[in-house]
Design goal:
This protein is mainly alpha-helical. The protein has three helices and no strands. The termini are far apart. This is Sulfoxide reductase heme-binding subunit YedZ.
């Protein structure tokens, strides 16, 4: 992250678009077994939801609550 400097943020944001493209490609390849694709899409959606600011702010509070 230090070596990339300012470019780190743009690279990190670009990874979200890549995730969408990967899911689209996987959808095209595995049309017969939608259950597997849905599982991967749900996991990706869960990871993306944790990046939303309101959710990201509440995660440390939850971690503290469950660590006791």
């Amino acid at each position: 992250m230090k070596r990339l400097g300012k470019r780190w943020k743009s690279l990190h944001k670009f990874s979200y678009a890549i995730l969408g493209l990967v899911l689209l490609h996987f959808f095209w390849v595995v049309r017969a077994d939608m259950q597997e694709w849905a599982m991967y899409a749900a996991i990706a959606a869960l990871i993306m939801v944790t990046r939303l600011p309101p959710v990201a702010r509440s995660l440390p509070k939850l971690r503290y609550r469950f660590s006791r």
